[in-house]
Amino acid sequence: MSINDTSAVIYPDVDLPEFNAIDKKSKDNGDILYILVPKDRPEVCPECGSVSVHVHKKQNRSVQDLYNFGHRVGLLIEGRTYRCRDCGNLIRVNYPSLHGRMTKRLVEAIQRDSLNETFAAVADRYHTSITTVATIFNDYTDVLMAEHRFVAPTVLGIDEVHLEDDYRGVFVKVDRTEGRVLEFTKKRTKQSVIGTLRRMEEPQNLQLVTMDMWKPYRDAVNEVFPNVPVVIDHFHVIKNLVKAMDSVRASICRRIKTSDRKALKHNRFLMLRNHEDLTIQQGRDLNTLLDEYPELRNIYLLKETFRDIYSDAGSSAEARDMFTEWKQACVEADVRAYDDFIRTVESWSSEIFAYFDYPDMDRTNAQTESLNRRIRTIARDGRGYSFEVLRKKVILNTYRLDSRGRFSFKDFLDE
């Protein structure tokens, strides 16, 4: 059949603008092969402008395509190379819908999926090699990362995630609607953090930095942005408080008989959970537990009283006064379990109580903790990724998710 034969059968499900489908073959396993021919041929030599162009030789090309209704699809393109009779130039035709031995739409699907899934899962889905997926991912993400700008947000969250026996630095745009990872670093040392902060564009945007109680973070921010306030998120403060309380429960567990130990261990969550989050029955169970172990009652009540600072204080000054009263209550109750916690709060008092001075800003690291969980999942599922691959996945995965949303029949019917 002639290359320009208009009688060629057109299969609309192929949907490649440069080609006509002239045949379709199927196998018992559901695989489909389309035979395609180009719709057009070059009429003018791009080298000399001559119109004396002839077919040099046939050149078939095997191309893998996206699945079609669950069936694997291959394309056999009956291509040609051409030669100019006047200057001898060999002309190879470039087809925009093809990319090597794949269609462009298949490559784009691999690009999209490889951001959010493991290379192995994507390779299995599209019946290609992990190496091919990794190559497509790296080529694609190199372009995206070249476009990526590390612009200072209004609120910057600094945290870390523990991977492969080391801590990685995580720099987050803290925002309830657009929170994402801005940068992911190999180290979390003071010098590493300083270098990262100095690379931020538009630093004048920065109004607040939230972090946990890791001194190199504070020192780095104070050196690079001495006028930007640092806030310790209440999540980290309460975490230290609860840890101190639970150490008392654990010490009791170690000195009582096994049968009682199991009950105390099993009901641990009653003491750890916020009092207002307990059901009526859980509240009764907690009172029974505290009646049985009186030394835990004051420890628990003091934990809840400290939490009241975050719910009731309207300013840093008021929070400081409430903390002073709480410390006195510890003394009067002869509770020493919180001594280390008190020293921690006092050594970080400026940053901890600054939390109360910015009630209208996103000053919680809860979003950062959520992103850290995603990072750990990416690292776990893709065990063996190089740091650079992991960095690109972390930064791009947290904001370049598939934005198409759910399939909408309504969008079609309303047209």
Automatic annotation (TrEMBL):
Signal peptide: none annotated. Residues 156-393 form the Transposase IS204/IS1001/IS1096/IS1165 DDE domain. Residues 100-140 form the Transposase IS204/IS1001/IS1096/IS1165 helix-turn-helix domain. InterPro entries: Transpos_ISL3, Transposase_DDE, Transposase_HTH, Transposase_Znf. It comes from the Bacteria. It holds the Pfam family HTH_Tnp_ISL3. This is Transposase.
